[in-house]
Amino acid sequence: MEAVEVVVAHHERATVRAGEVFLKIDTDQARTDVEVAAMAAAPIPTPEILWREPPVLALAALAGRALGRLGEPSTASAAAWSAAGAAVRMLHDAPLPPRLGRRLDELTSELDGECEWLVTNSVLPPDLVTRNRRIAESALRPWTPVFIHGDLQVAHVFVAGDEVTGVIDWSEAARGDAMYDLATLTLGHEEHLDEVIAGYGTDIDLDVIRAWWSLRSLLGIRWLVEHGFDPNSPGCEVDVLKTQAMRDRRGSQRRPA
To answer: What is the pTM of this model?
Structure first.
């Protein structure tokens, strides 16, 4: 072992890597309980649990590398992106986990509160928030719940060549909207959406996926700022919102009065 690497750290949790072992330290053991249970139930590869001694969970490193990073071009092959889509489909076809996800009314209330905060604190221009809030409406509808990962960021999917070797960070796993996982995976990587869909198969609603891009970005900005991350970094959440608003503006101009 050459060094200990801090993967991520903030006041709620931290992850460090020591050689081929990842140590996850979480102040909320309920999150770790969810993660352990979800990894045991998921029909796709997950990290091996080496040991657990609260507040620490030790996981074996996965083979390969992350499918990509938000704000950076992905070097993974088109086949790897399709394989990720196929893995997500396997998860969504699995039996439902016991944990319930966020209710629609809770999500709507949270979105309203975050949009108000973004405008009141001059974090984003009002027009940018308003347009994306309108786009997000398409995601705020009843859905048939499936087994979702709940935080399927592109950095949480590991591939080697054209194969998925595992998916990490399952603490948000629950019953939820399938389109949310697909949107999270492709957030900031719209150029790979067709490849993911090719692997996932049928039952895709592109408008809802795009709506979740807006909704997830609007909900995430305050948390990112308060935990020391920069949503204004190139290709990240604020850029996603700007791209969404630009598309919406072009669409409005083409629609007849």
So the answer is: 0.94
